[in-house]
């Protein structure tokens, strides 16, 4: 590792979205060199892996939606936007990977833009999962009303509103994120104005409320009503659709809830409530691990679609069958894609009540 890289580890190796953890602010007796070395050796490899898997998986989802689904329903629109949100995560990772290895060399404008893109992807992703839950609620619990409400046009309007809210919620990144030299090391992180603790509290509450509490309340209501309805009217196709969205929801909370909890605990550390050195080290490790879990989430939605969505499997087989390069690769690997001919029109036949996610 270069001398500048060594200095960077000594100065600050917080993760790219660590918006208030500053290793330099820790008391001198509390050494965090092991935490810094762990971040520099572990995170770049992880970022690269997530970038490759997330880019391929979500690109396939987008291609399938445009080529075969043609965005004919509200669900299709939400799934497309969810894939775009996931792509926002992975497209920022090469910048952060280089930052962890060396230092920030892209200047303040890109520091603001890349950080902003990450947070926009975070908010929009959870909002679209919320909308998918509401979409399932309307389709199953309010079936009559949903015949008029659940259109691709209304889905487009709702999606535009979500993107607007996500953009506005991420404005603090544009306002406070800066690239500056700190102890001979160029970093990229939030630098608040004089009223430091107030902004830290605002940011913590914003992340926890918009990223966890609000979606938890909305999804709990939607799925409690869905379960109540299905108990009185059992339908296998409805159950498959619900299992799909349940899987998306459960995976999201499994991968992002620990991250939100650690963010809140870090705020308590910044206020002095948590002052123990070992506890501070443990929080640093926990932040890196839970953030990594959150990043992996952007790779999992395509996996859920493939293993739980029968139509998505068919579309993917069609895509690989008709695209020469993947077909040659599969033949070279000794794989054989079986595809049963089915009319394209049958794929678009959907009822209000049992429409599958894909």
From TrEMBL:
Keywords: Cell membrane, G-protein coupled receptor, Membrane, Receptor, Transducer, Transmembrane, Transmembrane helix. InterPro entries: CCR1-9-like (IPR050119), Chemokine_CCR4 (IPR002239), Chemokine_rcpt (IPR000355), GPCR_Rhodpsn (IPR000276), GPCR_Rhodpsn_7TM (IPR017452). It is found in: Cell membrane. SUPFAM superfamilies: Family A G protein-coupled receptor-like. Pfam families: 7tm_1. The keyword Aminoacyl-tRNA synthetase does not apply. GO terms for biological process: calcium-mediated signaling; cell chemotaxis; immune response; inflammatory response; positive regulation of cytosolic calcium ion concentration. Its main location: membrane. Residues 57-305 form the G-protein coupled receptors family 1 profile domain. It is a multi-pass membrane protein. One of its GO terms (molecular function) is C-C chemokine receptor activity. Signal peptide: none annotated. GO terms for cellular component: external side of plasma membrane. The chain crosses the membrane at residues 45-66, 78-101, 113-131, 152-171, 201-223, 244-265, 285-308. It comes from the Eukaryota. Belongs to the G-protein coupled receptor 1 family. This is G-protein coupled receptors family 1 profile domain-containing protein.
